[in-house]
Amino acid sequence: MLISVFEECSKSIVKYSIVKTVYQRSIETTPLSVIVPLLSPSFQSVTDQVHSFSHQTPISIRNCVYRIKCNDCTKVYIGQTARELHTRIGEHKRSINRPPRNIDEYQAIVNDSAMAGHALDTGHRIDLENVDILRRGLKFTPQRLVTEAMEIAKHPSVNRIEGVELASVWRAVLDQPR
Predict the structure, then answer these.
(1) What mean pLDDT is predicted for residues 79-93?
(2) What CDD domains does the annotation carry (predicted)?
């Protein structure tokens, strides 16, 4: 009995120390207002804590590469922005929700937004409520563009432009199974 109580305490301490480590590392890259919801007094598993945090889209995040999924197929849209993410998502929403009145408007929408073009051409629904942040803290445009190109290469995407051209060495690395 005493051993099992000790084991339970050890597990709780290990979980706490892992959560504390994740918290400390996230402070370095994320504003505190985003981190606070991650930690709760209960001892959830670290996986549950990180999973629930990663699926929240903080409205004030900047300098990131993000992924938007199609609800009806496996394709995704990979994008990058230096502005606040909610501003960019709002632009995506407007382009998708704006029905074209004629063929010229249709062409303009499709030319402006690959994601809106996918939704219009296929009738699929785009999940703009659950945007995944793939990388954050990329303050320089070249960093974001290269990261975006690498993510586009890894996913079946609706992106028309693959971003910056990656060297063949990167293609070989990205194509390896994990």
Answers:
(1) 93
(2) GIY-YIG_PLEs
Question: Vertex 147, ends 155 and 137: CA angle to 5°?
Answer: 125
In what order do the strands lie in the sheet containing 126-136?
76-81, 64-70, 126-136
Tokens of 130: 């659950």
Token pair in block for residue 112: 């402006």
DSSP assigned state of 157: B
Lowest mean pLDDT among 84-93, 110-119, 157-166: 157-166
- DSSP H helical ranges for 30-84: 32-35, 46-54
Q: Cβ distance 71 to 127 under 8 Å?
A: yes
Interacting residues of 104 by C-beta distance below 8 A, sequence separation 6+: none
**71 has a pLDDT exceeding 90:** yes
Q: In this structure, which long-range contacts are made by residues 107-115, counting pairs with CB atoms below 8 Å and at least 24 apart in sequence?
A: 114/77, 114/158, 114/159, 114/160, 114/161, 115/68, 115/77, 115/158
The three-class DSSP label of residue 37 is helix
